[in-house]
Design brief:
By secondary structure, this protein is an alpha/beta fold. The protein is 32% helix and 20% strand.
Length: 259
């Protein structure tokens, strides 16, 4: 507690609860000011894949059958999914789109997942993938986030989205994905739908949302795939486009890359 007295009379008092933690697991990750990620006490820049096998081209898969072989410098371990629909079928429709507390059933399942995860080596909990597109409530996600932090303070919670103003209080790490969707137009010309400046705009939005909030960090999920699976005119990004996209994010504070 901190007290301010004037003439021997207390005029104000501030109290902050400090939690003494037990010995942590083999690998711990946390955020330190100003938005830096630490792994086992040392600053870290995470490199990993989101789901590389089905995203990359067939020739790429044939040349590098194993993701570790194609990216030996990757240092990001797997995450533990706590996405609503993985906790319970159709949970998004039943609960997560509403501003409400998770049900006792969900909280019990969440505790089971976290307890099981303590025997694993991982770096993050994964709370939601693009929740804004499905109108997932930030109120609901924040309740889950805070419960996980109570149960396991040694691993950050991550959300993948481009709406940091909406979900900044629901996670420790916002993993931004400023995709730019290269396609062919009706003339067969290659066009960029999102513009390479999309990364700069996304990260500027993150920093506005995170201003004044401790314990927040940002990562980047650059586009390494094509939307051809849903649009026959989709194209893969070129290496120049990917580099421009990624380094725009890194220059604006991204603490890791996860295409």
């Amino acid at each position: 507690a901190a007290r301010v007295s004037v003439g021997g009379k207390k005029v104000c008092e501030i109290r902050e609860t400090i939690r003494k933690l037990p010995t942590g697991p083999a690998e711990t990750v946390w955020v330190e000011k100003p938005g830096r990620l630490f792994l086992n006490g040392k600053p870290v820049f995470f490199l990993g894949w989101y789901n590389d096998f089905w995203l990359v081209s067939q020739p790429h898969r044939e040349k590098y059958a194993d993701s570790r072989a194609r990216t030996p410098q990757a240092n990001m371990r797997s995450w533990v999914s706590i996405e609503p629909n993985r906790l319970s079928p159709n949970l998004e429709e039943r609960e997560a789109v509403h501003d409400m507390m998770p049900s006792e059933e969900v909280l019990k399942k969440l505790a089971e997942v976290v307890a099981e995860a303590k025997s694993r080596r991982f770096h993050f909990y994964y709370l939601a993938d693009e929740p804004a597109y499905r109108n997932i409530s930030p109120v609901y996600l924040r309740h889950i986030y805070e419960k996980v932090k109570e149960l396991d303070p040694y691993h950050p919670v991550m959300i993948v989205d481009v709406n940091p103003d909406k979900y900044i209080d629901c996670a420790d790490v916002i993993n931004m994905h400023p995709y730019f969707g290269p396609t062919l137009n009706e003339k067969g010309e290659r066009v960029i739908s999102g513009g390479l400046e999309s990364a700069m705009n996304c990260f500027d939005a993150y920093h506005r949302a995170a201003e004044g909030k401790n314990g927040k960090a940002v990562m980047m999920m650059p586009q390494a795939f094509t939307y051809r699976y849903m649009n026959i005119y989709g194209e893969f990004p070129t290496f120049d486009e990917m580099h421009a996209n990624m380094f725009s994010g890194v220059a604006r504070g991204a603490q890791g890359l996860q295409p």
